[in-house]
Design a protein that fits this description.
By secondary structure, the chain is α/β, with parallel strands linked by helices. It has helices at residues 2-14, 36-41, 52-61, 65-83, 97-108, 122-146, 172-180, 194-202; strands spanning 22-26, 30-31, 156-160, 166-168, 185-192. The protein has eight helices and five strands; from the N terminus they run αββαααααββαβα. Helix 5 crosses helix 6 (122-146). The protein is globular. 26% of the residues are buried.
Length: 207
């Protein structure tokens, strides 16, 4: 199913169906999605510089790579411990990219995880987090060396508010990476109305 949805997202880009709703957005207009967890943690609805990974990206850009990796991993570990059973629509990590990475790490180690009440091994969670942090840092370095290109199969969706702010519905790490690198624009953001967001969510067009 996920591969089919990925093809649908790619097709929407390729046929230009989303073009009327897309534009480059100034980084200083971007806001973190106001999910329950985001608001609880203090960064929901705030500028992208308040999204915690932004600080770790900035630290890496300044040349403090190892401290950045350690701090990033500690933050991920805390968030996973607190919110691994909270759904993504509430800002939690359940079935999100890190959660899936943790499951994959257990599978690679031959450790079964119960579907209903999963119990995770701390060492395997730590390994999965290290891999995820390495991927995030590599992504940042890739933008720094080769520039940023929007991914057709993974568009960034957002809601534009009356005050001109643009509230991301995804793509927070991409936005944070560009901001940390000093870029002024986030290219090809698909701006939705609340009604369009609800339709896209029901159709599972958005991740």
């Amino acid at each position: 199913m996920s591969s089919v949805l990925g093809k649908v997202r790619t097709l929407l880009f390729e046929v230009g169906a989303l073009h009327p709703f897309q534009r480059d957005v100034a980084v200083d207009q971007l806001r973190v999605e106001s999910t329950h967890i985001g608001l609880q943690e203090g960064y929901g609805g705030q500028p992208i510089e308040r999204f915690p990974p932004w600080a770790y990206f900035q630290q890496h850009v300044r040349g403090e790579s190892e401290p950045a990796r350690v701090a990033f991993a500690l933050w991920y570990a805390e968030q996973f411990r607190k919110y691994r059973n909270v759904s993504k629509d509430k800002g939690g990590m359940h079935r999100g990219s890190l959660y899936r990475e943790v499951l994959a790490e257990h599978a690679r180690a031959g450790v079964e995880v119960a579907a209903r009440q999963p119990v995770f091994r701390d060492d395997l969670v730590a390994t999965a987090i290290e891999r995820r942090v390495a991927q995030r840092i590599a992504f940042l370095d890739g933008i720094r060396s080769r520039g940023y290109r929007p991914v057709a199969s993974d568009p960034i969706f957002a809601l534009e508010h009356a005050d001109g702010s643009v509230h991301l519905l995804g793509g927070h790490h991409r936005a944070a990476a560009l901001s940390a690198l000093g870029e002024s624009m986030l290219p090809r953001v698909t701006l939705l109305t609340p009604r369009m967001r609800d339709v896209f969510a029901r159709l599972r067009i958005m991740r």
